[in-house]
Design brief:
Elements: E1 10-15, H1 19-30, E2 35-41, H2 45-53, E3 60-61, H3 67-70, E4 73-76, H4 83-91, E5 96-99, H5 110-118, E6 121-123, H6 132-140, E7 143-152, H7 161-165, E8 177-183, H8 184-190, H9 196-204, E9 212-217, E10 224-232, E11 236-243, H10 254-267
Helix pairs in contact: 1-10, 4-5, 8-9
The protein binds 1,4-dihydronicotinamide adenine dinucleotide (NAI) and oxaloacetate ion (OAA).
Length: 274
């Protein structure tokens, strides 16, 4: 079985073959130093059969709950409601889970304790954001405030619970509309597929209750735009990123690349950046 350890390569499993997971699986199959693609989980096997059989070394196809048995690192790339089923079996076996649906971590934070108790790890990539290295560093000292403004094209926000529950019509907007202002924790509830970045930023810095975010629906932009201001005792810094949407308009193309960069660091001889 390809899930069994045959060398000292770290076995990596990918949960969800959507916009992010397909690119991560492809990169692993093409070769990342010291890593091998051991398994994937998909919702609809028929839809992904051609992709999987087209890989150079087709991995096992397993239910999400079994990936933790077949890998040393499980990469979560599925909708956030599956986070627990993917991460729990991995970390309780002392394995690492790379979490992209980081907004979903806030309601499942006991998984961090579970990982700690069992020698597992939960790793959050920088994802669609920028500068979490600087935020991590500043957090060693004192960060006074972190403020973020997110602007997205209409297609990148459609269906968000906050918009549906408040009956907001964004389809006919002609100018930018501020939908939300509050904490990263509240934003993750209202926009679970849109503000993973704010939650990642908060976990790197001053936490989900003190990290402030505005979310704008903006018909004048074609990219997912994030601007961040950090005020700390070591530095003041501003960061911005304008993400080109992938085939999933909510997800920037850079997200999968961030996961691949993180995986490359697991066994790389030269590591640059924190
Ligand atoms: N941390 C970050 O910076 C970012 C995080 N994200 C988050 O990453 C996650 C994945 O995003 P995308 O790849 O764009 O989503 P996607 O919708 O393109 O792909 C998700 C995949 O999961 C599959 N799936 C659903 N249920 C499954 C199951 N039970 N077993 C196996 N597979 C299942 C779906 O069929 C789909 O192929 C989302 O939660 C998204 O919000 C997205 C962008 C940035
Ligand atoms: O900017 C992006 O591409 C994705 C994003 O905001 C998120 O998931 O938090």
């Amino acid at each position: 079985m390809s899930g069994q350890k045959t060398s000292n390569a770290l076995r990596v499993a990918v949960a969800g073959l959507g916009s992010i997971g397909t690119k991560v699986a492809t990169a692993l199959d093409q070769g990342i130093e010291g890593l091998t693609l051991s398994a994937v989980a998909v919702r609809d096997p028929a839809k992904h059969r051609a992709f999987i059989s087209g890989l150079r070394r087709p991995p096992q196809v397993l239910p999400i709950e079994q990936l933790g048995e077949a890998a040393d690192i499980v990469v979560e790339c599925a909708p956030s409601n599956h986070l627990r089923s993917i991460v729990e079996p991995a970390v309780k076996r002392g394995k690492a889970a790379v979490v992209v649906s980081v907004g979903g971590l806030l309601d499942n934070f006991d998984l961090v304790d579970l990982a700690r108790a069992n020698g597992g790890r939960i790793i959050v990539p920088t994802g669609a954001l920028i500068g979490l290295d600087a935020v991590n560093a500043a957090a060693i000292g004192t960060i006074h405030s972190v403020q973020m403004v997110t602007r997205k094209p209409i297609d990148g926000l459609k269906g968000a619970p906050f918009i549906v529950q408040n009956n907001i019509d964004i389809d006919n907007l002609r100018e930018p509309l501020k939908l939300f202002e509050g904490s990263a924790r509240e934003a993750a509830k209202g926009f679970p597929a849109n503000v993973n970045v704010a939650v990642a930023l908060s976990l790197a810095g001053i936490g989900p209750d003190r990290t402030r975010i505005q979310v704008w629906a903006d018909p004048t932009v074609t990219r997912n735009v994030h601007r961040i201001e950090v005020e700390a005792d070591s530095a003041r810094f501003s960061m911005g990123i304008e993400n080109i949407p992938s085939e999933n308009p909510k997800t920037g193309l850079i997200t999968a690349l961030s996961v691949i960069a993180l995986l490359r660091k697991q066994r790389a001889t030269l590591c640059v950046g924190t």
